[in-house]
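ugh finaly. both done.
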Amino acid sequence: MAAVEIITFGCRLNAYESEVIRRAAGMAGLEDAVIVNTCAVTAEAERQARQAIRRARRERPQARIIVTGCAATIDPARYRALPEVDAVLDNRAKLDPHSYRCARAAPEPCPPQRERAEAAASAGSAADLLDGFAGRARAFLQVQQGCDHRCTFCVIPAARGPSRSLPPDVVLARARRLVAGGVREIVLTGVDLTAYGADLPGRPSLGQLARHLLAAVPELPRLRLSSLDPAEIDEALWRLFAEEPRLMPHLHLSLQAGDDVILKRMRRRHSRAVALAVARRARALRPEVALGADLIAGFPTESEEMFRRTLELIAECALAFVHVFPYSARPGTPAARMPAVPESIVRERAARLRQAAAAALAADLAARRGSESEVLIERPQRGRAAFYAAVAFAGDGAPGTIRRMRFADSRADRLIGVPVA
């Protein structure tokens, strides 16, 4: 019988959940299926998902095609209407093995009880949920779900629900399970990661969770954080960033724009000055840090001058790893009712941002020639530096090994490492 294939779109959280899906489908005995885990952040992400669904039906005509993820949660009827699709699961149901037991034969999977699906999404067995990461050098660990904020461009709260956090003891149990399975770097992830703990007794912060995790799992060599809201970085996290070398010198910031008027119209909670202050503070605490950011091009009402402030933010914050999103109107959001920037200008501004981002990454890597860093080997002759850069090297090295390397050269998107004795 053919295997289960999972096609993932979108964020790190979706990548994490796809591994949970793989495990849940296996527990249910699902075979000969394609599961498409969709993203709703942009219209392009949804277009690519529909394209993948059609391609899957052509290539595997006998397989059951199951669609899930944020786009399928927000508009399930649209995906049920596609002739290629056999079943649609929302974001809660997709993590429950019961959903896939129903999906093996039924024309539409029977909905699991909300309580059972919620348990699978929040406090399920680490052994059941995390076996999909066994044998990997790096793994994502979801510690937070949902979002309480209402950025005017974003539909994710409708797909993910309100912010809710995993209790620290569950996080530690899952981290220990990952490390016991050979994982050497854990990446904490969530929809709004810096909101961690606000819904828990005692309101533990993300910084407190990270310190507790590193103290309780001393055999974990590397801890990394996914996207951070610059308005929510807590003082405990700043102190840990300064003091703990096992917390990697790499911060990815949810900036979105560099113009204060646009940030207000997005309903973001930080200003341009806050973004610059976060970048300065990070470099003062860890000079080797690499900074990344998400930026949106062509938000409604954005003038050329407003856009230029976002473009200039790449150099002013010395951003090395930039994710560029051309603005995409999402139905039902306030931004979709604002005066739109012509699509041709949106595309042109996105191209300019990507060009500046590529040049910034190349300059950052070139500046690191001759320096040294610990590199986690992820596959033969490929690894990742502590500051996140991809590293290519010659010679042997087993995945999961951490080796110190000197960077002899750089390419546009990676460093060339030489192992140091």
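ok and the 2nd:
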Amino acid sequence: MRLRPRSIVLLVLGLLIVGSLAYVALRQDPVPVDLATVTEGPMRVTVDADGRTRIREVYEIASPIAGTALRSPVRVGDAVVADDTVVARVEPVAPALLDARTRLQAEAGVREAEAALAVAESRVRQAEEDVSLAESQWSRTQRLVSSGVASQSQLEDAEQRLLVREATRDAAKSQLNMAESALARAQAALLEPTENGRTGTETCCVELHAPIDGEVLSVDVVSERPVAAGTTLLSVGQPDDLEIVADLLSSDAVRLEPGAQAIVERWGGPHPLEARLRSIEPSARTKVSALGIEEQRVDAVFTLVSPPENREGLGDGFSVFLRVVEWQADDAVQVPLSSLWRDDEDWAVFVVENGLATRRTVDIGRQNSRTAQVLSGLEAGATVITHPSDSITDGTVVADRATLRD
């Protein structure tokens, strides 16, 4: 039976309607996902840490004697010249006030010394008289010997007596000097400070000069006050001679080598600065983190490479943030860390091809805070799903979430 053209058209329309309804009923809605592109370019792995600046060489100036440090002649920030600028003055210690007992003892000591001095003076006078008599006898005996009246032995005896008397006189003079010194020492015990705290006998004070050309960093003793020997009075340094010390985890520090490049950020200037790792201290210490976890920390010291004119305003003790370069490459294939997930012992990603999610195993190398180095399994330019959910499987139809929003 031949169908008329109208019947054929109606039949075709019916089949199309039935097919459309079946497609709508059976089709899978695409899952909205976030997409990213695998890129190839420079990649850097860094160890990030907070740090602070410090002057490389700080000279602390201390009092060499116990005494009174006069009011500081310099202030923080003053420029100083080596061996020329007076940065501190220290006067010898003033004597203490005497109580009644100590004063009586000191006065008795003075009287005793005065009496001893009087005895010594009388002995000197006696010795001088003895010398004068011995000299007279020696001269007379010498004339008698010349006249033939006295013998040579008598002259020798007179000369010996003269020498003995002279030695006795010299000893008496030495005892006189000792007695005078003892009297001066006893009188010094009676000295008391005057109204300004000094005895009035000092002729000079100890003046301390700057050891280097630089600036005054701190003044520990500003006003006049007593100080002990070795008390720090002030510190001097060169503000441009800066270095950076950073507190690193010991596990991060062992991966860094001397000379490693460091990028200095958050120091207050418009552009990052450059530094180099100079040394890592050989001994670590235990430090409790803000979360209460014990960590082994070690100080790493960095030399600032950027010239002083590029870091104006940066001073001693300023806070900075360091990114220490552990590894870098110019042409690394990179994939976002958010696209990676564990498939047993392997790393895997979902690659989007023709609207379908395809599972792919990849080999990962170095990682930083955002991306991972792809050793194999992906090519630059591939599109991958970031933050894949449990609804994504191999062959799932997906759609770019950004496109759906548009």
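summary for the 2nd one i guess: The helical segments are 5-26, 100-147, 152-188, 250-253, 401-405.
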